[in-house]
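Much of our argument rests on the idea that a fold can be written as discrete symbols. In the encoding step, the backbone of a single protein was reduced to a row of integers, each denoting a local shape. We regard such an encoding as a compact summary of how the chain folds. The record that follows shows the chain in one-letter code together with its fold in token form:
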Amino acid sequence: MSRWAVVLAGGVGSRFWPLSTPERPKQLLPLITDKPLLVDSVDRIAAIVDPVHTLVLTNESLVKSIRMLLPAIPRENIIAEPRPAGTAAALTWAAINIERRDSKDATMISIHADWFIGDDARFREILLEAEETAQKTHTLVTVGIVPTRPDQGFGYIQPTNLDRKGGSPVKRFVEKPDRARAEKLRSEGYLWNSGIFVWNVGDFLAQVDQHTPELAKAIALDRDAEAAEFFASVAKPISVDVGVLERSKNVTVIPGSFGWDDIGTWAALGRVRDKDEFGNVTTGNVHLLDGTDNVVQADSGMVVVYGVDNLVVVVHDGLTLVTTREKAADLKRLVESLPASEQAKA
């Protein structure tokens, strides 16, 4: 058996504006440790996947920066997507590359570049357990995170029976619910849809061929087709969750608890960074008094925060952002409302 890893590292990370830009999106920023999120992600799996067998899928504009950040990854393993076509197309292209360079029996572990993992060792153990399940059952395996709160920002997975050894067949996927329903799903044993996938390359490509007409022309191309031709043949962008997993009856979920969190917004940093006694998370020269659960990032100067709660304050390159932790999830709308001169910088 040959093991490969695929790290999805595309996107612009607009919800981390103004710190993130198209040239330096959130996956290239040191938001948790002193290393960029992408470097932490690759380092985390290096103990179980050789860099030679690690593919990084990203935007064309980021290839040079990623090569500098990840010198151990071969140049041909940093793959630029010619256009955004959704995770179904990205992972299918990765699977085709692995099949072409290795075999259809190779195992493919798919992760994202912008996660927080609290327990790296346990994370790797679960990936290997998922790999063993994928090899034995020839199903598409996803890792469902045991919820720690009723989060409205995640999709949910209903297992058929979590007592089953080696995971459980998936009964259904649920899109992001409101808070009341999220609490109900959590109480009923649903898991967070993490986006962690493990499968045999051949099994995955067979499911794409069977269930994803949006990729029919692309997957029918000769296996030696170039990326430009493959992505141009995708009928419309679609996620792997919607385009493959939700349509397939051949999906297994394994529960995982290893401190996982999606670093999707500034507010997420309040959950994963070290806090003071009042729940505040600060970076830079910050003086804070009589405030709770604030996230403050000061790249220059001094920021003084007094008597407020649940705010996000970011000072970067002469610009100051002030919003609430709740509104921090909707920064794309804010950026789109800015004057054209400021939008050009975002």
